[in-house]
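Supplementary Methods. Inverse-folding protocol.

Structures were first reduced to a discrete structure-token string of length 438. This string, shown here, constituted the complete conditioning input.
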């Protein structure tokens, strides 16, 4: 073993930054095979995965045999020359002629390269997070957050936070998680920042947050987690149309950024980047009434006044290749704070953004009631106790202004952009009805 050259990231090599150069890499041996005096090692370093080839003729016998015996997930330092080669999985390989430090792992790595059951992989999630497909998704997720924050910064929004411990009165609903909070009862985990955001717009103006939300979803589905990351926006002097434009631009910016900056990762997870580059503002809008008609024509069970479930969103969104808005949900299926449409009070100034290809809702939002008397009336109509909403009503007494906002489920958008058939792999350690370990 001779001294190693400087270590470089595999991603830099795959991007073509070191063609023909002598470099060293270090990482985990994710897969290997050998045939007729050549070993092919797939090495993963956190930035990418690359094929490394070792020719028996370039090594002394002991080194070559020791490498051949290494169990999967051993850590290796390898030095060699970068070759452009069509046959290599990512178009480039490292032709190795020097092996540096090695940390041998135990021989019984549980995730071997054949198909395992979903439950087995979830039991071993702490190891399975190393899988190259998951690695690509998590890198896309990080880029997603970065792109969202860039968009907000460029458009003058301030990031702020709301509490995770709340009292039931703030949110209501059947999916609250109750927590033990000193000796107090009726304390829950937040499902949305919204009511607090409405207070904060009078302090900061246009705001957003990226934070976990918690919902005790009673059934297992492909698109619900009990802990998900919620990107929420709230802004003063903005109506329904204005907040939908924010959704159009934000989602388009995120999709374009992933396609331009991480095409390799997108292809690896099964999404053609060109499809995301086709996103274009504004997204089409249909009314709730039109959506009901489309579904009824298709023979899907749906009555005017019903909320969409998976049985409706799946068939509805298969009609579309690009996202679209459904506007004007009935007052009866929306929480009390949604502003009724002045021209037609049986529907609200609300809108959900639907992802195409059967994915369904990714954003829910709308215009909020800013008038004190109207809000109080809706609270009474929904049989809620105004005392529980005293601080929220106060916001309509001092400096009230028309305002709107929305919540976007980060895992939902990733699931669609990565073309996955289940939400679980969009987050490192998914939490659902049955799983909080590991
Ligand atoms: P759904 O009807 O699909 O369960 P919702 O209408 O209850 O969603 P909202 O309260 O509108 O959801 O929340 C805003 C966004 O948060 C949704 O559009 C979705 O993207 C995301 N979201 C809501 N619940 C979950 C969940 N359990 N897991 C992952 N994402 C979620
Ligand atoms: Mg919704």
């Amino acid at each position: 073993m001779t001294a190693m050259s400087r270590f470089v990231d595999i991603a830099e090599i795959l991007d073509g930054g070191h063609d023909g150069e002598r470099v060293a890499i270090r990482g985990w041996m994710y897969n290997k095979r050998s045939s007729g005096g050549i070993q092919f090692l797939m090495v993963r370093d956190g930035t990418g995965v690359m094929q490394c080839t070792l020719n028996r003729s370039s090594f002394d016998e002991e080194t070559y045999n020791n490498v051949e015996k290494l169990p999967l997930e051993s850590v290796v330092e390898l030095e060699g020359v970068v070759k452009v080669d069509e046959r290599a999985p990512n178009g480039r390989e490292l032709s190795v002629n020097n092996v540096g430090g090695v940390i041998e792992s135990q021989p019984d790595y549980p995730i071997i390269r054949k198909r395992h059951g979903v439950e087995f992989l979830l039991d071993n999630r702490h190891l399975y997070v190393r899988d190259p497909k998951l690695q690509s998704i998590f890198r896309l997720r990080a880029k997603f957050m970065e792109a969202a924050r860039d968009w907000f910064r460029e458009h003058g929004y301030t990031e702020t936070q709301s509490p995770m411990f709340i009292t039931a009165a703030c949110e209501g609903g059947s999916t609250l998680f109750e927590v033990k909070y000193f000796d107090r009862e009726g304390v829950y985990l937040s499902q949305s920042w919204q009511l607090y955001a409405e207070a904060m717009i009078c302090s900061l103006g246009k705001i957003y947050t990226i934070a976990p939300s918690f919902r005790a979803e009673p059934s297992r589905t492909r698109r619900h987690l009990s802990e998900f990351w919620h990107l929420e926006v709230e802004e003063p002097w903005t109506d329904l149309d204005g907040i939908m434009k924010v959704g159009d631009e934000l989602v388009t910016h995120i999709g374009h950024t992933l396609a331009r900056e991480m095409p390799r990762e997108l292809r690896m997870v099964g999404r053609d980047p060109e499809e995301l580059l086709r996103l274009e503002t504004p997204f089409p809008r249909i009314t709730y009434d039109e959506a009901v008609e489309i579904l009824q024509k298709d023979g899907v069970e749906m009555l005017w006044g019903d909320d969409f479930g998976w049985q409706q969103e799946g068939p509805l969104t298969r009609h579309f290749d690009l996202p679209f808005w459904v506007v004007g949900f009935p007052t009866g299926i929306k929480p009390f704070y949604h502003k009724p449409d002045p021209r037609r009070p049986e529907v609200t100034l609300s809108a959900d953004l639907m992802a195409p290809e059967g994915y369904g809702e990714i954003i829910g939002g709308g215009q909020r009631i800013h008038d004190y008397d109207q809000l109080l009336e809706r609270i009474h109509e929904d049989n809620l106790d105004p005392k529980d909403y005293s601080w929220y009503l106060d916001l309509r007494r001092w400096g009230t202004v028309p305002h709107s906002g929305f919540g976007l489920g980060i895992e939902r958008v990733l699931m669609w952009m990565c073309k996955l058939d289940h939400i679980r792999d969009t987050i490192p350690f998914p939490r659902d009805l049955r799983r909080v370990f590991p």
